[in-house]
Design a protein that fits this description.
Elements lengths: L2 E5 L4 E7 L2 E12 L29 E8 L14 E4 L3 E5 L2 E5 L6 E3 L5 E2 H9 L1 H10 L5 H17 L4 H11 L1 H6 L4 H25 L4 E9 L4 E9 L2 E6 L10 H16 L6 E6 L17 E5 L2 H20 L18 H11 L14 H30 L2 H6 L3 E2 L2 E8 L5 E7 L12 E5 L8 E9 L2 E6 L7 E4 L4 H16 L2 H7 L19 H12 L3 E5 L6 H14 L4 E5 L2 H26 L7 E3 L21 H9 L3 E5 H4 L2 H4 L3 E7 L6 H8 L2 E8 L18 H8 L4 E3 L2 E2 L4 H11 L5 E2 L2 H4 L22 E5 L10 H16 L7 E5 L2 H10 L5 E4 H4 L4 E7 L14 H8 L2 E9 L1 H4 L3 H11 L1
Parallel strand pairs: 4-7, 9-11, 12-13, 22-27, 22-28, 23-25, 23-26, 24-25, 26-27, 29-30, 31-35, 32-33, 32-34, 34-35
Antiparallel strand pairs: 1-3, 1-5, 2-3, 3-4, 5-8, 6-7, 10-11, 11-12, 13-14, 15-21, 16-17, 17-20, 18-19, 18-21, 19-20
Helix pairs in contact: 1-2, 1-7, 3-4, 3-6, 4-6, 7-8, 10-12, 12-20, 14-15, 15-16, 24-25
This protein binds one DNA strand of 15 nucleotides through helix 1, helix 3, strand 11, helix 12 and helix 18.
DNA sequence: TCTCTGCCGAGAGGA
């Protein structure tokens, strides 16, 4: 039976004499819960909250002792109270009348099984725990061996799927044009080298075909809920893992870390019903010239038998890694037996140790960072790792939640009916399924998802790209899966990049930059006499500061104040001065909006320049990002990654303006780029490390945003919730400018937000704005509206149905209001409805016509409408965290141009002072 | 059950 529980106290380790000799044992007090539903293997579980504390240790729970024998006793060192432990194939014993458990010869002990560890992470960890840590901190830089290795793997996969070798090489090399260009490689030379490696693979494949019909499967993503492992095996041949290595290995035996990697895949396969005792490592750089002296063997393949001992060793290593990650400790390198003098990362290791004043086996060089910087590092390291644990929790939900729960959570589409699988050129597959309901989910076109025939972890599943998602789902994948279900596949990519950005800012960052970030120096500016914007003093000052900033400028742009225009004008001025500019923001949408404004601005700019100097040179602009993320009309500016390396790299390198999300700024390709200025829009929605990803690439930076609107989205409550923008606005008032003229709202609409959030400083830019009403719109007459809707701000009293997250009475009333506006001549597309909860958004959407935009506050940020109707969805009181953040109400109230209607229960709203003031304002 | 976007996925190698 499997035993699962939390460590409930101190672990006792001792030696005992047995009939087999001296044995180690560890006695672990464990808190168990009742048997679960029996769907899974007989496992005893317990309930625990996020901090590892048992949430309700009542009579449902029982404490017992699990004895871990011999090697498993080693794990006792890090079995802190609160850690979760799973013991497979345990035996039950009775001791002094109490039931206890112990490991058997077949047992595995898994620490924190819900913490999914990557196979490659274990490989690094086995090599040296500190190497694992360093890789995490600084990422893998762009270098040729890595790119070549990736290429050979891709070609290998293609060969297994039956693709022609030359066709595969051509296509794969072409796809990596940009990277190869940055590395200064020619396609011919790379293709030749890949061909060399591929020959070794082909030769070996031929051998296999001569002997018997092999059964192959390429690149399968495997997840183990028992061992807490995930990884993607290069190939599986007759049920056993095959790992490809493009490095050289002339020894008889495979390298140990490679064996470890194969052993991880064996464990994964075992959970999926396999019985693996053989692993193959394919060293493709080994050629006929490297004939094995002993055996005379020409093959690059090295087979080895996978003993029980190796598999258990691997699990213990995984445990050690998981325990360290949970505790937040920093590895020193003493945990392993690697020799520092052979290590490629020795220098990096010593510098990191020195700068962060960490203990390390390699020793320290360089002087430590100032204490406040080290404190910052550890604070943000913790915060980012907390985010990572939240991502891990998302993975765990793949098996902890049942299908319906995941669908209700919008994380899965479970209603699919498989239609067909069709082979594509190049050996990949197109999969089609029909949707049988209109259930919504966060899955969208272009996403990477787990496509399965029933269960994302236990069933047959494959990573797939969503090509189309309407009544039918069209996917592409490496292998054919009879898909009936799609699950969101969580990714650690963002957290990885945050960590690297923070590391780079502190350890590679320029001293002056850090003085600014830590408030140790005052921001300086060049004198600029040019006038950039005639009729708006604040905007002109903002552009002047942005252009003249030697360190940074901070532009505070409340709703409707033309920050996008200001950004565009500033970039144009920078470009005209010959500077190279990075334009970034957190979301693709924000990047595209800013880019659109810039393109308009540049058209004007080039025109006027032509008039002035006769030099009408076009400015080259490039948008970096994935096809699915970039808005269609910006597609012509998208940097294509595939193609001739020289051309690709020239396009990027010569671009005067590069636009990309902050996440993309952390990519290997973007990290190779350098800019004079980084301009970050919607900076108040970015975490500090997120902002660093962009500003790390530039000499100076300009942040544009509004910290009175919504903060960054983070999973865990921690230091990431405050933006760098907000912090710098406080500590560098000399660098800040607030845009104080708004071009959006009627004066009456703007009054409350201005008073409440902007100290009354926000004003209409022009009389036309202040006095705008629905009457300005063609065919609309305010007189046709009932008296209560004739004022630009109206309150509609609806008592509500008392529902927690929905209110059908409000929804019905809103449908009436929309009909009323329509009768007065408004187009449906001119009306927007905002609700706090997604459930209420769906409720309202089911009451109103399709062409009325209904969405949550969060998703309305950044856009505006002629008429906005707000559904408060609260009866009696304003309970719930969503109402606590007043920035959300600021966003909702500042979306309309000409009319705002608040719908809700006055009694509920009056229960909070801010909402009460809002009520007064709306009713007068 | 509060709100939620990114990312070409993971992994590719060097003695």
């Amino acid at each position: 039976m499997h035993i699962r529980g939390t460590v409930a106290g101190e672990v006792e380790v001792r030696s005992v004499s047995t009939s087999y000799g001296e044995s180690e044992l560890a006695e672990v007090p464990l808190l168990l819960a009742a048997e679960d539903d029996g769907e899974r293997p007989p496992t005893r579980t317990f309930a625990r909250d996020g901090d590892g504390a048992v949430s309700d240790p009542t009579s449902d729970y029982e404490t017992t002792t699990v004895t871990l024998w011999n090697k498993w006793a080693e794990s006792a060192d890090y079995l802190e109270p609160g850690l979760e432990v799973l013991v497979t194939d345990a035996k039950e014993e009775t001791y002094q009348g109490e039931t206890q458990y112990a490991t058997t010869g077949d047992s595995y002990v898994v620490v924190e099984p819900s913490f999914l560890v990557n196979v490659t992470a274990i490989r690094n960890w086995v090599q040296c725990p500190r190497l694992y840590y360093l890789n995490k901190l600084s990422g893998v830089p762009l270098n040729y061996p890595v790119v070549k290795g990736t290429l050979v793997h891709e070609v290998f996969g293609d060969l297994l799927r039956g693709r022609d070798l030359e066709e595969s090489i051509d296509a794969r090399v072409d796809e990596r044009g940009l990277e190869l260009g940055l590395l200064g490689e020619t396609p011919e030379a790379v293709a030749e080298e890949v061909r060399e490696n591929a020959k070794a693979i082909e030769g070996w494949l031929e051998q296999g075909r001569l002997t018997e019909e092999d059964s192959w499967r390429s690149e399968q993503l495997l997840i183990s809920e028992t061992f807490g492992l995930r990884g993607r095996a290069d190939a599986i041949r007759r049920g056993a893992p095959v790992e490809l290595k493009t490095g050289k290995n002339l020894k008889k035996e495979p390298r140990f870390k490679d064996k470890v990697q194969a052993a991880c895949y064996a464990l994964l396969l075992e959970e999926h019903g396999g019985d693996v005792d053989l692993g193959t490592l394919l060293y493709t750089k080994n050629s006929a010239l490297d004939r094995n002296e002993e055996t005379g063997d020409l093959t690059p393949a090295k087979e080895f038998t996978m003993g029980d001992g190796l598999l258990k060793f691997v699990v213990r290593q995984r445990n050690e890694l998981a325990a360290m990650e949970i505790s937040g400790d920093v590895p020193t390198g003493y945990e392993g037996s690697a020799k520092c003098e052979y290590c490629f990362e020795q220098d990096t290791c010593m510098v990191v140790s020195g700068r962060l004043d960490q203990e390390s086996k390699a020793g320290q060089i360089a002087t430590p960072l100032p204490e406040e910087e080290r404190e910052y590092f550890y604070r943000f390291y913790q915060a980012i790792e907390e985010e990572r644990r939240e991502v891990h929790r998302e993975y765990a939900k793949l098996w902890e939640q049942d299908a319906q729960e995941r669908a209700d959570d919008d994380r899965a589409l479970i209603d699919l009916k498989f239609v067909e699988k069709r082979p594509l050129e190049g050996g990949r597959w197109e999969l089609r399924a029909r949707r049988t309901s209109s259930a919504n989910s966060k899955i969208r076109e272009g996403d990477f998802v787990l496509a399965s025939d029933g269960h994302p972890v236990r069933g047959n599943s494959e990573l797939a790209t969503i090509e189309r998602l309407d009544d039918e789902v069209v996917l592409t994948a490496d292998e054919p899966v009879e898909v009936t279900r799609l699950d969101v596949y969580p990714s650690e990519l963002t957290t990885d990049r945050l960590l690297v950005a923070m590391h780079d800012a502190l350890l590679k960052g320029d001293e002056r930059r850090k003085d600014i970030l830590f408030g140790r120096a005052t921001a300086e500016f060049d004198e600029i006499s040019e006038t950039f914007i005639d009729n708006n003093a604040a905007q002109n000052e903002a552009v002047t500061k942005a252009v003249g900033a030697r360190d940074c400028a901070l532009i505070h742009g409340p709703p409707g104040t033309g920050k996008t225009y200001t950004i565009a004008r500033a970039i144009r001025a920078m470009v005209e001065r010959g500077e190279r500019v990075l334009l970034s923001a957190f979301t693709n949408r924000a990047v595209d909006n800013a880019l659109e404004a810039l393109l308009e601005q540049l058209e004007d700019g080039v025109g006027s320049q032509t008039q002035r100097s006769g030099d009408g040179k076009a400015v080259s602009v490039v948008r970096v990002g994935s096809e699915s993320g970039i808005r269609e009309d910006m597609e012509p500016y998208r940097l294509e990654r595939a193609g001739d390396p020289e051309d690709r790299v020239a396009e990027l390198q010569n671009a005067q303006v590069v636009a990309a999300t902050t996440a993309t700024c952390g990519s290997r390709v973007m990290k190779e780029q350098a800019f004079d200025v980084a301009l970050v829009d919607e900076a108040a929605q970015l975490t500090e490390p997120g902002t660093c990803a962009a500003i790390n690439l530039a000499e100076r930076f300009v942040l544009v945003g509004d910290h009175e609107q919504l903060p960054p989205v983070v999973r865990a409550e921690n230091d990431l919730t405050e933006s760098l923008f907000e912090r710098l606005i406080d500590c560098h008032p000399e660098a800040g400018v607030m845009l104080d003229r708004q071009y959006r709202m009627n004066q009456r609409i703007q009054a409350f937000a201005s008073q409440e959030f902007y100290d009354g400083e926000l004003r209409p830019a022009e009389p036309e704005v202040a006095g705008r009403t629905l009457d300005d719109l063609a065919g609309v007459s305010t007189d046709a509206l009932p008296p209560e809707l004739q004022d630009p701000v109206a309150f509609v009293d609806v008592e509500g149905d008392g529902g927690q997250y929905t209110d059908s009475e409000e929804a019905a009333r809103i449908a009436d209001l929309i009909a009323t506006y329509e009768r007065a001549g408004l187009e449906r597309s001119e009306i927007g409805v905002i609700a706090p909860f997604r459930a209420q958004v769906s409720e309202i959407a089911s009451h109103v016509p399709d062409d009325v935009t209904v969405d949550t506050v969060d998703r309305f940020q950044g856009s505006s409408q002629e008429v906005i109707i707000v559904s408060f969805t609260a009866t009696g009181s304003l309970e719930g965290p969503i109402f606590e953040d007043y920035r959300r109400i600021n966003v909702a109230l500042t979306r309309p141009k000409r009319a705002l209607v608040l719908v809700g229960d006055p009694a509920a709203l009056a229960s909070d002072p801010v909402y009460e003031r809002m009520l007064e304002w709306a009713r007068t």
